[in-house]
C-alpha cells in the first residue's frame, strides 16, 4: 500500500525530533518518496542537512527564505498538492494548538492549511503536558476537523518520568499511514487492482552516441496511466524517454532499451491489468560498438537482430484472470493487422491507430483509436487524455 506513495513528513520542536530521521528511512524502505518540512524550533534538535541528505530534497522551514528566494514561498501550495499523506511526527503541543486554530506562521503550518491529502498527527510531549486540559481539548478539536491522531505510547520520557507521551514506533506509524491512504484512495472499478502501463520509445544503441528509436512521445501511455489511476487503480508506469508530463501520484520506473523493458515487464508480470502502450524497437544492432563509429567515406552496413517481444511473452504467461491490452500502429491494413496481433499474442483487447492519419500517431495530442476485442470494435477520436478515459471506462465500467 505504501509503495510509490508520497509522504510529506513534518517535524516539530520536541526531543523526539531525532526519531523522525529513522521514520523517514522506514518510509523509504517501504517504497515511499519523502519530503520534509520542519518548524524553526525543530532545527534546534535536528539540522536540516540531515533530513535533506536522507530525503534528497531541500527541507522547507520558513515561508520566506532569503537564501532561496525563487519559488520557496509557494512551496506550501506545491507540496500540499504533491503529497498522498502528511505525517507530523513528532507534533508538539504548540504546533497542535496552531493546527486546530488555523495559524500559519511557518512552512509546516502553512502547508497543513494547503494540503489536499489527509494529515496524520503524532502528538509527542511530556506526560503532564499531554494530559493537560488544553491539549486534551485540542486533540478533540483536531479529530473533529478531520485530522487523524495517533495516540502516543507510554514509557520512559525525556523528563525522566514514566508516562504517556512517547512517539509511537515507526512500524506503528507506517501501519496507520497505510490504513489512512487505503481509506482515501480513489474508489472505482479498478480499486485494489495493480495496473502496469508501459509508455514511450526504446533506444537501441549502435555506439555510445547513436541509437535506433522512433518518434514516440509517450503521451498515449501516460494518458492511459492517468486514466487507470482515476478509476482507482494502483498504477505502475514503466517508461522510456518521455516528452509528456508524468501524472501525479503514479509510481514510475524507467527503461532505455527493449531488453530493459523486458526485464521490467517480467518483474511486474503479476499485475491484474497490463497496458502495453510503449513503442518498442523490433530490432537492435547485433554488436554495438564501445566507441563512437568514425565516418570512413565508404558505405557501412548494420547487422540487426530482433529484440525481446515483451507483449508476446506476457501473452504466453498470461494468468487466467489477467487483462492484457496491447497497441498496434500501422501504415496500412490497420484493422486486419491488429486483429492478427490480438490472436497471435493472446490479448484481450488491442488499441489500433494509423500513423498515416492526420491528428493521430506519434507526438500528437490527439488520436483516433479503434478498440478491438474478441467480438467487438469501437472507434474513439479526440484528445489522447479523453480517449484513454473512454477506453478504460468502456472496458471496465461495463463489466
From TrEMBL:
Example of a GO cellular component annotation carried by this entry: phosphopantothenoylcysteine decarboxylase complex
Enzyme Commission no: 4.1.1.36, 6.3.2.5
The Flavoprotein domain, residue ranges: 5-174
GO terms assigned for molecular function: FMN binding; metal ion binding; phosphopantothenate--cysteine ligase activity; phosphopantothenoylcysteine decarboxylase activity
Keywords assigned: Decarboxylase, Flavoprotein, FMN, Ligase, Lyase, Magnesium, Metal-binding, Multifunctional enzyme
Co-factor binding details: Binds 1 FMN per subunit.
InterPro entries named among the record's database cross-references: CoaB-like_sf (IPR035929), CoaBC (IPR005252), DNA/pantothenate-metab_flavo_C (IPR007085), Flavin_trans-like (IPR036551), Flavoprotein (IPR003382)
Cofactor: FMN; Mg(2+)
Protein's job: Catalyzes two sequential steps in the biosynthesis of coenzyme A. In the first step cysteine is conjugated to 4'-phosphopantothenate to form 4-phosphopantothenoylcysteine. In the second step the latter compound is decarboxylated to form 4'-phosphopantotheine. Catalyzes two steps in the biosynthesis of coenzyme A. In the first step cysteine is conjugated to 4'-phosphopantothenate to form 4-phosphopantothenoylcysteine, in the latter compound is decarboxylated to form 4'-phosphopantotheine.
Protein name: Coenzyme A biosynthesis bifunctional protein CoaBC
Organism this protein belongs to: Rhodohalobacter mucosus
Amino acid at each position: 500500500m505504501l509503495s510509490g506513495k508520497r509522504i510529506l513528513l513534518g517535524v516539530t520542536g520536541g526531543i523526539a525530533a531525532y526519531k523522525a530521521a529513522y521514520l523517514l528511512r522506514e518510509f523509504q524502505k517501504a517504497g515511499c518518496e519523502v519530503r520534509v518540512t520542519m518548524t524553526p524550533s525543530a532545527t534546534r534538535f535536528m539540522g536540516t542537512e540531515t533530513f535533506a541528505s536522507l530525503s534528497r530534497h531541500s527541507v522547507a522551514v520558513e515561508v520566506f527564505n532569503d537564501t532561496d528566494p525563487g519559488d520557496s514561498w509557494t512551496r506550501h501550495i506545491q507540496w500540499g498538492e504533491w503529497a498522498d499523506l502528511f505525517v507530523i511526527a513528532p507534533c508538539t503541543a504548540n504546533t497542535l494548538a496552531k493546527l486546530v486554530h488555523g495559524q500559519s506562521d511557518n512552512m509546516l503550518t502553512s502547508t497543513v492549511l494547503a494540503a489536499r491529502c489527509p494529515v496524520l498527527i503524532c502528538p509527542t510531549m511530556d506526560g503532564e503536558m499531554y494530559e493537560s486540559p488544553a491539549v486534551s481539548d485540542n486533540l478533540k478539536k483536531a479529530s473533529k476537523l478531520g485530522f487523524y491522531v495517533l495516540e502516543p505510547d507510554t514509557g520512559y520520557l525525556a523528563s525522566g518520568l514514566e508516562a504517556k507521551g512517547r512517539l509511537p514506533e515507526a512500524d506503528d506509524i507506517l501501519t496507520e499511514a497505510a490504513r489512512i491512504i487505503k481509506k482515501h484512495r480513489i474508489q472505482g472499478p479498478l480499486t485494489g487492482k495493480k495496473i502496469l502501463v508501459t509508455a514511450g520509445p526504446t533506444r537501441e544503441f549502435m555506439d555510445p552516441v547513436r541509437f535506433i528509436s522512433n518518434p514516440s512521445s509517450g503521451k498515449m501511455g501516460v494518458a492511459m496511466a492517468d486514466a487507470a489511476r482515476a478509476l482507482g487503480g494502483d498504477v505502475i508506469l514503466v517508461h522510456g524517454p518521455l516528452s509528456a508530463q508524468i501524472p501525479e501520484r503514479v509510481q514510475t520506473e524507467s527503461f532505455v532499451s527493449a531488453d530493459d523493458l523486458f526485464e521490467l515487464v517480467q518483474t511486474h508480470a503479476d499485475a491484474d491489468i497490463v497496458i502495453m502502450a510503449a513503442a518498442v524497437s523490433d530490432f537492435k544492432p547485433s554488436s554495438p560498438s564501445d566507441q563512437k563509429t568514425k565516418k570512413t567515406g565508404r558505405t557501412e552496413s548494420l547487422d540487426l537482430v530482433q529484440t525481446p517481444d515483451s507483449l508476446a511473452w506476457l501473452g504466453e504467461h498470461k494468468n487466467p484472470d489477467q487483462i492484457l491490452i496491447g497497441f498496434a500502429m500501422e501504415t496500412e491494413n490497420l484493422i486486419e493487422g491488429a486483429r492478427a496481433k490480438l490472436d497471435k499474442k493472446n490479448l484481450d483487447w488491442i488499441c489500433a491507430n494509423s500513423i498515416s492519419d492526420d491528428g493521430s500517431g506519434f507526438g500528437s495530442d490527439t488520436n483516433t483509436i479503434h478498440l478491438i476485442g474478441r467480438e467487438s470494435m469501437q472507434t474513439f477520436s479526440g484528445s489522447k487524455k479523453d480517449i484513454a478515459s473512454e477506453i478504460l471506462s468502456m472496458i471496465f465500467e461495463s463489466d
